[in-house]
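Anyone up for a design puzzle?
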């Protein structure tokens, strides 16, 4: 029995290092190889003392009117097919319940809720709606983000890299200036 304790301990130690390392490698791979999309943001008023300091993001490209309206339900996992509009910002081309094949750009998301008005719009919850920052700069960044969204002249957006359904926020920009540099102005 004593001979098994050391190999079991070593195996558990390796697993504890492997799991977070594989998560980090996956995110870094998306950042290096993923296609970049610019998601226009909308104002939001966050409050969560348990998640740490972050900027809560909402995107204009989060509302969709599907053709097959009765196929989806709230809380359902979906795949959002993305294209860029004439201005270079992300736009939803379609949604599907099954993972797409081929060369389409897509991200795995969830249906936040369905508005049962006459158009039956779907509100999409993306997996990248929080941008974490240094805890001392986050409150100031949140204020700058809110002000940037209120000013019609500013274009406030998130740069998101997407690869095979996975997504990582690269940065948040206000008027094409990264938020960290915007704060130092």
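Challenge accepted. My sequence:
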């Amino acid at each position: 029995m004593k001979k098994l304790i050391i190999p079991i301990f070593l195996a558990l130690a390796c697993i504890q290092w492997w799991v977070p390392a594989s998560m980090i490698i996956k995110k870094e791979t998306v950042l290096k190889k993923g296609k970049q999309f610019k998601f226009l943001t909308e104002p939001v008023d966050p409050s969560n003392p348990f998640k740490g300091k972050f900027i809560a993001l909402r995107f204009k490209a989060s509302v969709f009117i599907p053709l097959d309206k009765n196929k989806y339900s709230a809380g359902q996992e979906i795949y959002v097919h993305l294209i860029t509009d004439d201005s270079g910002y992300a736009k939803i081309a379609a949604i599907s319940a099954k993972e797409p094949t081929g060369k389409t750009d897509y991200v795995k998301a969830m249906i936040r809720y369905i508005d049962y008005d006459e158009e039956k719009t779907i509100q999409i919850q993306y997996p990248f709606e929080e941008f974490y920052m240094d805890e001392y700069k986050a409150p100031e960044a949140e204020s700058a983000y809110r002000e940037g969204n209120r000013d019609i002249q500013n274009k406030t957006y998130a740069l998101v890299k997407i690869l095979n359904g996975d997504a990582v926020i690269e940065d948040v920009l206000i008027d094409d200036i990264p938020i960290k540099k915007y704060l130092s102005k």
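A detail worth pointing out: The longest helix spans residues 2-33.
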